[in-house]
Amino acid sequence: MEFGIIVGLILFFLGILIGLPLCWVFLGCSAVALILIDSPLKFLAGTAYHAIDSYILMAIAFFIFAGNLMAEAGVADRLVRLAYALVGRIRGGMVDVGIVTILFLGALTGSSVPTIAATIPLLVPRLVKFGYQARYTTAVLCSSSFLGYLIPPSVPVLIYCLVAQQSVAAVFLSTVFPGLLLAGGYMVLNTFISSRYRQPSEEMPELPKGFKGTVRELGAATWFALPALGTPLVVLVGIYAGIFTPNEAGAVAAVYTLIIGLFFYRELKAKNFWAVCQTTVSTLGMITLLLAFGTVFTRLMIREGVAQSLADFMIGAFQSKYLVLLMMNILLLILGMFIDGIPILIIAVPLILPLVTQIDVNLVHLGAIIVVNVGLGVVTPPYAISIFVGSKLSGVPYDQLVKPMLIFLFAVGLPVLFLTTYVPFLSCWLPTVVVGAKIVGPW
Question: What's the CA gap between 33 and 23, in Å, rounded?
Fold first, then answer.
């Protein structure tokens, strides 16, 4: 490996450690490495341009916009009512309501931060009145925050498809079963441990008794939530029926969500709309810079043989495919402890592709593995954006959230990650059935 590339890698890790903005770390390290190896700097401009010259980036913009609109459109209350009608009778059901609400809202927003920003102020004060400790309910909601990464439409999946050049329709479906397993696992675990974090308090709000009353309440709750739930339905039906492409689906989702917020729920005001536009432009700008300069850095590393050297080392050190996948997961989890999800996708995917190609892992399956890893990184200390946001919104100190979140991580999160890794059926069956068997290659 050339001296300039080694210097670039050292500067990259130093930049991360001292907390410099990652997009500028990518750009600076690439420029230094190119100068030291006496390579033309025009590589920077050409590679950055081609990295963002993709229709999928347009889809990302529309889905971010639709998700931010949904977070401001007043759908959380309707989803809470629906979730309570579905799971409110279960032991610990009020906390399960939060998990199911985040599952629904995450499917609508495709992101983690807008989801907990909408649900924590709404649910935590209510659950405290019912005797649940604020630290526990906040921890559960934060642990569930990344479920939106796994239920389509999903922004991290779109970024993975952009970097790995994979079918959006196929990878969207590959994460559905892992997402449902995580949600179900969280609910089962909550059933057994929630009593430790609850003191006798006010009685829970009563649900109608009897079969007819239950059906009536579930029907009413579904009716009020139906306009919001139509967003992923419109997107998925449109994509898989071939009515429109993923970027057109994003535009349809944005328009549909805008109509819901303005005319159905009537909670989207001019001030909120302007804030949504600002947030969307800011988020998209960050993603674009990361994608452009991150691609420059990773493609330079690939061109200079770093990715192939990593693949050769991993295969030489760990003869078994199972061990190679285990080490890949450990690497991604460690990265998730210090770096946000989008930079991980941009850094790791190009470097991992030569490795998984040599061990015959299907790239749709790989997408599910990486997106689950990225999601767990959102809730893994010390750098966990969901914990920072959850602590700020609920007023619960950071250190009080870590312990209960680690219970959910180790008891549910990691087992589901390993199931996703070593049982390809979980991520490959649904894309095979819906999109076609041709997308599922060797394991």
Answer: 16
Least confident of 15-19, 169-173, 278-282: 15-19
Q: Are residues 99 and 13 in the same domain?
A: no
26 and 47 both lie in a single domain: no
Residue 328: which residues within 8 A CB-CB, separation 6 or more?
314, 352, 355, 356, 369
| C-alpha to C-alpha distance for 153 and 174, rounded to whole angstroms | 12
Q: What is the mean pLDDT of the chain?
A: 83
CA-wise closest residue to 314 among 302, 328, 301, 300: 328
Q: Which domain holds residue 401?
A: 40-439
28: left (phi over 0), alpha (psi -120 to 50) or beta: alpha
- 15 with 114, same domain? no
Tokens of 34: 């190119």
Residues 18, 63, single domain; the answer is no
Q: What is the pLDDT of residues 88-110, one digit of tens each?
A: 677 777 788 888 888 887 777 66
Rounded to two decimals, the pTM is: 0.82
The mean per-residue pLDDT over the stretch 125-135 comes to 84
CA distance 303 to 309: 11
CB 344 within 8 A of CB 377: yes
Question: How many Å apart are CA 379 and CA 408, to the nearest integer?
Answer: 10
pLDDT tens, position by position, 234-256:
877 887 777 888 778 888 888 88
Residue 153's pLDDT is what? Answer: 79
> Is there a single domain that holds both residue 103 and residue 169?
yes
Residue (of 268, 262, 233) closest to 249 by Cα position: 233
154 & 32 share domain: no
Rounded to an integer, the average pLDDT of 128-132 is 82
Tell me phi and psi for residue 56, to 5 degrees: -65, -30
Which value, in Å, is the radius of gyration of the alpha carbons in the chain?
A: 22
7 lies in the same domain as 98:
no
**Distances in whole angstroms, Cα of residue 426 to Cα of each of 58, 143, 199, 294, 334:** 29, 21, 39, 30, 24
Structural domain count, the chain: 2
Closest CA to 253 of 28, 4, 70, 439: 70
As a whole number of angstroms, the distance between CA 356 and CA 321 comes to 9
